[in-house]
Amino acid sequence: MIGLSPSPRRLWIPLATLIAALVLIVLPMQGLIKGFMPDWVSLVLIYWALAMPGRTPIAVGWFSGLLVDILTFGIPGAHALSKAVLVYISASLATRIRVFPIWQQSIVVILLAGVETVILILIGYLAGEIIAGLHLWTAAVVAGLVWPAVFYSLRQARRLTTLGSD
């Protein structure tokens, strides 16, 4: 049956979106604008953990976080731990969060970004670095505000490549 088989799964889409998010993190920006930029890698990881909870391993979050640590010259392992925890929480709660309307998902994303911020602050404190400032919390709020755009664009990419059902 030639025309009835589903198109092949393209698993490169999650990888490509993570690479695009990593590029967005290292783009040079003004100081004020940089403080309001959400963590794009976290948003992409949250999306894929919610969309495909069984196929988004915690190791993907850890490895992505390690790349963020390398690219941003951060504390080695800080983002790796925070993103692994982020993927774990997102995947664990995926069946509950997916039924929420988009505005409630945005609130959950703000909370998840806040948890990640707390983890990064605690790791910085333990490492002897003072990580403080309002920009950390505004970035979490902005992550929730841009979540609908991230959600709909990644969902459209997933649907075009038949990576799974909603």
Can you walk through the features of this model?
This protein is an all-alpha fold and 166 residues long. The chain has one domain. Helices cover 71% and strands 0% of the residues. It has helices at 12-26, 31-35, 40-51, 58-72, 78-92, 94-97, 102-126, 134-160. Helix 1 packs parallel to helix 4. The two termini are 26 Å apart. Mean pLDDT is 85; it is low at 1-8.
Task: Set down the secondary structure blueprint.
Layout: H1 12-26, H2 31-35, H3 40-51, H4 58-72, H5 78-92, H6 94-97, H7 102-126, H8 134-160
Helix pairs in contact: 1-3, 1-4, 3-5, 3-8, 4-5, 5-7, 7-8
Fraction of residues in H or I helices: over 70%
Segments where pLDDT lies below 50 for 5+ residues?
Answer: 1-8
**Approximately how much beta-strand content do the residues carry?**
under 5%
The total count of strands amounts to: 0
**What's the structural domain tally?**
1
Q: Report the structural category.
A: mainly alpha
The first-to-last residue Cα distance is: 26 Å
How many whole angstroms does the radius of gyration measure? Answer: 16 Å
H and E string = HHHHHHHH
Average pLDDT across residues? Answer: 85
Largest sheet, strands/sense/barrel:
none
**What is the approximate shape?**
globular
Instruction: Supply the number of helical segments.
Output: 8
